[in-house]
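PROTOCOL LOG
Step 1. Enter all chains and additional molecules of the complex.
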Amino acid sequence: MKRNSRLSLALHALSHMAYDMENAQTSADIADHAGTNPVVVRRVLGKLRAAGLLTSERGHSGGWRLARDTRHITLADVYAALGESLIASDPGPETNVCAVERALDNRVLRIMKEIEDSLVARLSQTTIADVQRSIRQDASHAH
Amino acid sequence: MKRNSRLSLALHALSHMAYDMENAQTSADIADHAGTNPVVVRRVLGKLRAAGLLTSERGHSGGWRLARDTRHITLADVYAALGESLIASDPGPETNVCAVERALDNRVLRIMKEIEDSLVARLSQTTIADVQRSIRQDASHAH
DNA sequence: TTTATTGTAACAATCTTAGTTACAATCGTT
DNA sequence: AACGATTGTAACTAAGATTGTTACAATAAA
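Step 2. Run joint prediction.
Step 3. Record the structure below.
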């Protein structure tokens, strides 16, 4: 049970779908390969679907498909879809007394937000196609 | 009880020390202002001290001081001192069967590490002096 | 009708974090 | 020497977050 596995799992799942775009991928299949549970997969992929990154079909021969070309899905899209907020957290209730303290709080918060923005900017520069490409490279000289 | 408050608390504490460099700041004082507990403060600042960012003195009129100029302490130093790893997590035991799966795991891990490296690079561009400067700005036109 | 699949709720187990209490060690002050 | 203020640290509690699991309704193909 490790942390931050949602982003990792999402990347796994997306790569699987990119690897075989012709068939819908079932949550059971993805879960098997990612070493987790189908329900966990559906939970995570549900968020990606809500963000328009994926589509899903119920019933026999159903499963999950990419909604767009892999070149048009960035890691920032995935990050946003998951609703992650790694750096900046919601500020608690304002309990500060003096103006300097409030200013400090505001500034720390703003800096955290700036950092998070930088992170998102970085994430937006890598697409699933990029991830997919490097997986093929790794596989070709796997140990 | 919010997440990621250690980094936030560290920034608060450092700013306090930078604000009054002449006197050692006690954990009780910092805790009061940051709205938390002295022990929590000592826990976090202990890590910064272990990284050489701070010094502390016991006993009467003891407390915490910056070990270096504020211009020479970056947010990356603080991040590293806290031992945070927001993006990349330790890989679990290798349970993958096929080479493609192992390659995927490796690649996802590598990408997470790349992202974390970018984050650290960004953090290294902001110093405590920068933070301090903008606090003064905020305080001058506080609401 | 059967089978395979998603969608979702409910719950358990584990891990993380913050908070708290307690107390020894240290060091200035009286 | 005694006292008071402070760090250092261990132990514990409480709350939250995350993952895993079971169960079952809804859906759609075979």
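Step 4. Note key features.
The two ends of chain B are 26 Å apart (CA to CA).
Chain B touches chain A through 48 residues (CB under 8 Å).
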